[in-house]
């Protein structure tokens, strides 16, 4: 479709961003990258908040929305569902398959993503902010254990011989895969052989590799000791309503 207008992808290279860059690559939808430097506070700019009122990336603007008018979408799960409907791919081909995809998609959105995010926070970033490490111990243990439990859920989910989490490869795999980062989450994939094989199987896909690499040079290491990382931590952690 040569005259298809590109989707604007508001993005920073993090696990939630990778979900959507992977989906766009897998679905071969044309897109244009609009970096949102969350370490520099660009997520609070009024223009961005108008399309993503939660002040989080990713978000998209599709100039060719469902009624031919532009549409914006925020929340990675909603974006994945929108793109799957638009492309007609990767969300199951009947009601039963769609329910299977959606249960794992929502499991990622409500479980693995938030819990793994907190595990990263307590393990890597909080020690740079709170000098009394004993205060971090409870949170660190709680979220590391919860991620361990969730890895176990995936391991059992993949134990019936299926190649992908909902059967055929789907947006559920695209949502879950970027969040399997065992090193930063205090996990060992050798304890989860089916999950480990799935991680490798998903990575073999060229669309996943292209999406995962998008903007990789933009990202700074939030756990680093330099001035830029310290500034980014101040922007990202401790936000309140006003
Ligand atoms: N539930 C949201 C989470 C998005 C999210 O947390 N994005 C992070 C980066 S991974 C962000 O934009 N952070 C900016 C901030 O914390 O100010 C989704 O799935 O899209």
Automatic annotation (TrEMBL):
Domain GST N-terminal: 4-91
Family annotation (PROSITE patterns): GST_CTER (PS50405), GST_NTER (PS50404)
Domain GST C-terminal: 94-222
CDD domains noted in UniProt: GST_N_Ure2p_like
InterPro entries on file: Glutathione-S-Trfase_C-like, Glutathione-S-Trfase_C_sf, Glutathione_S-Trfase, Glutathione_S-Trfase_N, GST_C, Thioredoxin-like_sf
Protein name (record): Glutathione S-transferase family protein
Lineage of producing organism: Bacteria, Pseudomonadati, Pseudomonadota, Alphaproteobacteria, Maricaulales
